[in-house]
Amino acid sequence: MKFKLSWVGFLISGIAFSQNNSLFISGGGQWVNLGDLDVPGNQITVEALITKTSATSVNIVSKHTGPGNVNYLLRPSQFEITTTSGYTAISNPVPINLNTIFHVAATYNGTELKYYVNGCLVSTKSWSGLMVQNNLNTAIGDQSSCQCESFPGYIDEVRIWNVERTQSEIQANMNTLPTPGTQTGLLAYYQFDSGYSNIQGNATWNGTPVGGASLSANSFFTGNITNLSVSATNTNLLCFGNSSGTITATASGAFSPYTFSVDGSVFQSSGFFSGLAAGNYVVYSKTNASCIATTNILITEPTVLAVSTICIDESLPGANDGSSTSTPSGGISPYTFQWSNSQTSQNISGLSGATYTITVTDNNNCTSTSSCIVSTGTCTLTASSAQTNITCNGANNGLANILASGGVTPYSYVWFPNVSNTNSAANLQPGNYSVTVSDGSCTTTGSEMVSNGDFSSGNSGFSSSYLFKSPPNTAASQYWVATAPQVSVWNGGMSSPGDHTSGSGNLMMVNGSSTPGANVWCQTFAVNPGTTYLFSTWVSSLNNTNTAILQFSINGSTIGTTFNAPSSPNIWAQFFSSWNSQASTTAAICIVNQNTASNGNDFALDDISFKSCASSCTATTGFTISQPSSVLTVSTICSDESVWGANDGSSSSFPSGGTPPYGFQWSNTQGLQNISGVAPGNYFVTVTDAN
Fold this sequence. Notes:
This protein is mainly beta. 1% of the residues lie in helices and 46% in strands.
């Protein structure tokens, strides 16, 4: 046995291990004589632990002088026997390295020779016949007759059997053999711990050292020979269904080099396997076909990462009140969210009609996407007209009113012909009219028309009735463009957490005027006639005293209603209003301060925008202004008195044209169409038609 248990020292408490002795052959002529130990029949096993210290190490165990009389001969490179069928040898293809302990064994069973290295069957050869016997002495470490085939090195655990040992039996007892006296077929067994005796018990085969053979601890001993084994570690899949798993296999025991496989058929020199899917794997390691070790390992995967979305449509076109909610599942939480509109919350709102796609990323950086559609709201805008026709042929006193309802206020009106831009028109001539009403719904499209709306270019691209003033701010009606940290530098009573665009960019800070209608910011550019535009800005209060009241203005006319900056500072809020250009080709857009307070009224502007609307709800109504078909006229015929003073004169009127029925008013105050019994004189009649 190659380890012994001993107490070391008196003051050191513990157990230590030390190596027992081996037979040491330093050169030629040194060997151990076992006597004439013949193995008859057709079964034999010879085995030993060996350490070559020279490339010329030859005989481990020998009972031969030449090919004609080899009862058995075990060498590091081969095993030889001579049978009634003749001489044969089986080679060992495994290199027996210098200064390294190996277990070698050879067997014969009457039909086949086998050679084992460290428990692995490395070579076989078919052969038959009974083994020849001779009168030679068995030698360990040389050839007994000539001492010419020495084995410089260490030899241990020599066993000679008259049975064929199986591979499993050889593997189980490479380092020591228990109860040697009861082992079937064991003829001789030499451990060389303290002598050369046959510890199988048959003293006939006790060994005798010759020529200075000695017992010595093997200086190259590093541990017992072990059978081939394999262990494995793995990395599991980060994402469901991919092939990111890995296995790292490590082999030990038997002899190297090792090869590895995860399917039992394709082997490789590296123990690392990548690109693996989830599942149970059998990991193989082998030295050759007879020595294969396996271990099982499981590669797991998380549950599939999925996300579902539900969209709620806009209530009206341009209402921008659609929403989308997402529900992630599986994967490894926590999750992060990225929407196609750049928002990063789980649920988003304030949406216009469009397709929205979310990408959910879990803690392993796995992703899943889902999309849903927010439909543009349905137009509910309706329009009708009420008109008053021209009263008299040739007059221009027609009237019309447009009645709009539904949709999103405010409404804009385009008249054809262009007689008004409001919901009513007066002094209309006869003719056909149509009015297209557009509501305030708007989905912006096209490029941004405002230049430097985020103030990234500083104080440029716009005009203001306020005074541009570098720090410090000394009065109302002043403004400055800078980053948020400069707000308190400009005015110690103001503060801002950051601009709206990025948090670190520029904004326009304003100390509001007490004069209503003052233009804070203005810009002018060309527009297309008959087009709806959306004017918007982000506003933040710089303190909470008398928050700003603002309104949009285009071409000198305010549009929409006023809007108040947030009541608390450091909050950004967006305000917008739609505008139809009617016949205009230019838009001078302004943000107007309507607050008259001189205390407070401090605010910031950022991300001012003006874009055309891709669509808005429209409704068209038409009407015709008519007039009487002909001009109202009247003719009269008078009859004189019959005699002077008779007062029997008369006058008849004959109206035509206009719109009957007619009313009559004579200059003598009578109200009939015809008058009689009148005295001589001039009489006038005024005819009024139904209009």
